[in-house]
TrEMBL record:
Keyword Lyase found: yes
Family membership: Belongs to the group II decarboxylase family.
Natural source organism: Photinus pyralis
Protein name as it appears in the record: Aromatic-L-amino-acid decarboxylase
Pfam families assigned: Pyridoxal_deC
Amino acid sequence: MDSDQFREFGKAMVDYIADYLDNIRNRKVLPSVNPGYLQPTIPQEAPQTGENWKSIMEDIERVIMPGVTHWHSPNFHAYCPTANSYPGIVGEMLSAGIGCVGFSWMSSPACTELEVAMMNWLGKLIGLPEEFLNCSNGSGGGIIQGSASESTFIALLTAKERMVRNIKNVHPQLDEGLIKAKLVAYTSDQANSSVEKAGMLGSMPMRLLPTDQNGCLRKETLEEAISNDKNAGLIPCYVVATLGTTGTCAFDNLEELGPVCRREKLWLHIDAAYAGSAFVCPEYRYLMRGVEYADSFDFNPHKWMMVNSDCSAMWVRNSRHIVEAFNVDRIYLHHEHEGVAPDYRHWQISLGRRFRALKLWFVLRSYGVEGIQKHIRSQIELARYFEKLVKDDSRFEFACSSMGLVCFRMKAGDRLTQTLVDKLTQRKNIYVIPCYFQGNYVVRFVVCSRLTEIRDIDYGWSEICEVASEILNGYIPGKPNGELVSLVTVSNMSKRRENCIEH
Ligand SMILES: Cc1ncc(COP(=O)(O)O)c(C=O)c1O
């Protein structure tokens, strides 16, 4: 492909994307394909000779779109948002066009320097304490990682290394392997699955501690777990607190957990993957009170801040620890300006890294602080509007709400609420998923798409009401849960439990 063809292909693709997003309401949010649908639509082998870009374009609607779940549809209300914006997409284009690998300052100075600057902009934007920023006098700093999962894992490995060093400083005779085998980590039973996975990958048992009735991990629970482990001869090392849990968007109490971590010298990592974007609005910053106790903090602009994936913003209070844990050097990686700016390869798992700061720069400049605040506030307002619709309808019971998420159930009980989710999924007009709240099966409705408007909330609600009416027509009051059992086969029920969002 020469540059003239690239111009044509690229422009056609920009048009295609703009049309796709302009008309996304016309598509069902969920696809109707079965596993294995794609294979028969393409040849078994790669083509022997190159094809014209137009024939590739033609296959997008035929091969790809039938199997796409439209995450940016205003009718997508499952999981949590994944960001998408035009400046973000254009930033990705330029990043691909430049195609540099920024593992050190020297390997592409603009890649490192823009990232340093953007992490300062972003940190200030969400009100992070000064000591986490690259521009502070201390050794704090920020980096863009690929995911919140990666950040949690990186923080765990760093905590492990720091703990081993600290212990070896006092007891040099102790075997490193024996120390590592005794380390333990803590989080709540509401934390994202990636937190448990980090413990698994890092060979550090992750205790999933029970939460209070609002889904928050409290001080007494953490203290008791630490004390039990210490009594058993183990070494508490790492704590992950969540600001905005995946199931119900609950916030752990940092003002309680932070001092415990300080006192016990445990690394405190904060996972604010989804809700962290809300701290752009000063009125939500009370939810991060106690953040000054953290050793590391992460949130995903690629979830709720309109920066296309991947862009997970991670800050550490003391970058020396992360560099000590991740530094493996080779002569070919050295350069004459070392130490002046971060060599980000020492802060991450992979060696190579993309120029991800470009899309962040484009988004922050295109929307400005006010534009991003408006986006967050309007999505929260839409959720509150939905909440009122739930509360005003006597067939439903409101469970909880936080940020852009509302959880509710049918008063008729768990079984009928499960049926509601199943039927909505079969109809494919809106997409919601369930979770458990205080032992009950509830529907999670999240305002996800940047394109969602009040008319879409009304549409989603009318869809829910229509299906609920249909279900309640076959329901005999006074016999909650029992009457529709025949609609729900045992195998479907167990499948649903597996699909139920971790909680
Ligand atoms: C609280 C929380 N942490 C972590 C994650 C995982 O994020 P990522 O896909 O960036 O690893 C999620 C995803 O929904 C989440 O809600």
